[in-house]
Amino acid sequence: MLNFSRWAIAAILLPLVIGILCAVPSFLPDTTVERLPHFMQTRVNLGLDLSGGSHLLLEASTQDVAKQRLANMEEQVRTELRRGAPRIAIGDISSRDGKLSFMVRDPAQVDAAVERIRPLTQGAGLTGQRDFNVEVVNSSTVVITPTEAGIDNAVKGAMEVATEVIRKRIDEMGTREPTIQQQGGNRIVVQVPGLQNPKALKDLLGQTAKLEFKLVDTSANPAEVAQGRAPVGSEVLPYPANPSGVPAIAVKRQVMVSGEDLTDATQGYDQNNQAIVNIRFNGSGGRKFGQVTSQNVNRPFAIILDGKVLSAPNINEPILGGSAQISGNFTVESANQLAIALRSGKLPVALTVVEERTVGPQLGADSIRAGLLASVIAVAAVAIFMFASYGRFGMYANMAVAINVLVILGVMGMLGATLTLPGIAGFVLTIGTAVDANVLIYERIREERRRGRGVVQAIQFGYKEASRTIFEANVTHAIAGGIMLALGSGPVKGFAIVLLIGIATSVFTAVTFTRLLASRWLRAKRPTEIHI
């Protein structure tokens, strides 16, 4: 227990040195850290309650998800019945009351229509139900009804995708350590430390970024378009920047190219030095875009974002390079936000802000000062008590506590963890309990000396016999911390992270490191008595 080879000494000291070095950047100013090598730029990030920032609670509409699913199913039904052999002719598809219904013109083809549609439905998770029910009414009308299980499963999937899209958009802004997590079935909490003006964030996250390219219906009557009416096969969409002055335009319903074929989007400038968005398509999208522009030269082509027409430029020549430009009276900031939204992908559901808070940095500064003061008082009180109670061995414990504080910060920096106000509470608690292991060891050494064992044997048995108790006690702490980490969120998770890191580092420093110090002292002094 007290014999350490050179390799063992190196194995103990090396991780402690690395941990201390990784903690140093957290105490340096930003300009100094930026000049350090990349592997040394490990800093503890401050949470929203310490550095200030913005808090948003976003809510998704389940009705929006259901509506989108109906629209997708309608398109699939039309395609399947039209392309199959033999072709099945149907009347107009109605989407009233949240269900699809249509009449099959030839009653003899009703069963065939149902057989083609059923494979379009899927299982709703593990519920054993389908996401749509297909039934025949009045012998010739097919009704497709979404099930509750299907809607719930769709909302769950949409929220998971929306969370990842939001994460990508915020990462594109260059903001460090945002907190993004689902709350309940249809809400997402977004906390961005250091961001004092949430307007740009709200504009970015509230943008669905559904990009579509459709042909303009030039046959539409402007007077009817102004009244919201369009020819069959077309629809009227808002067009705020319409040069004609009418804030609407008629476009074909068919989507020629969509944003799903995009591979990149960047903010740029046109020949008039106006802000635009440069987009690039993948291979499939580039071919479709080239084909559409080749077949429709001298026709207007509408660029639609989230149901609104940004611009409707004329196709002067085929665009075959797989890239295009989006213009629409952008500022540099709005063009950059649109580029970010398009790069990160479209949101599967529209999100609205239902709660908004801004935390000032002054509150965080006060919390940091209070936390540092509490930490200093805790360390000082523990150090005085340990030295007064155990002398030299108390000094070893104090050295372990000081190193443990730095190692905790270093590990948090390496993991990119975020320190919150509850995290500071966990930090202070870890400092206070870090010497528990040393107290157990030293009391056991006293007991062994009272039994008549020699100095070396007493120290050896003290570390050996107390280790089991120390291990069991810290395992129970770790279990509690693990449960808080797994089930908790926000402040609770921040507390659990610091607690778990502190348990691991304090056991290592309090047991292994102090045992190394005691061993070196015994070898050097060979004492016949210890004052403990």
Automatic annotation (TrEMBL):
Gene3D superfamilies tied to this protein: 3.30.1360.200, 3.30.70.3400
Compartments, record wording: Cell membrane
SUPFAM superfamilies with a match to the protein in the record: Multidrug efflux transporter AcrB transmembrane domain
Residue ranges occupied by any SecDF P1 head subdomain domain in the UniProt entry: 244-349
Keywords (A to Z) from UniProt: Cell membrane, Membrane, Protein transport, Translocation, Transmembrane, Transmembrane helix, Transport
The UniProt record lists the keyword Membrane: yes
Quaternary structure annotation from Swiss-Prot or TrEMBL: Forms a complex with SecF. Part of the essential Sec protein translocation apparatus which comprises SecA, SecYEG and auxiliary proteins SecDF-YajC and YidC.
Homology family: Belongs to the SecD/SecF family. SecD subfamily.
Function summary: Part of the Sec protein translocase complex. Interacts with the SecYEG preprotein conducting channel. SecDF uses the proton motive force (PMF) to complete protein translocation after the ATP-dependent function of SecA.
Protein name as annotated: Protein translocase subunit SecD
Organism of provenance: Sphingobium tyrosinilyticum
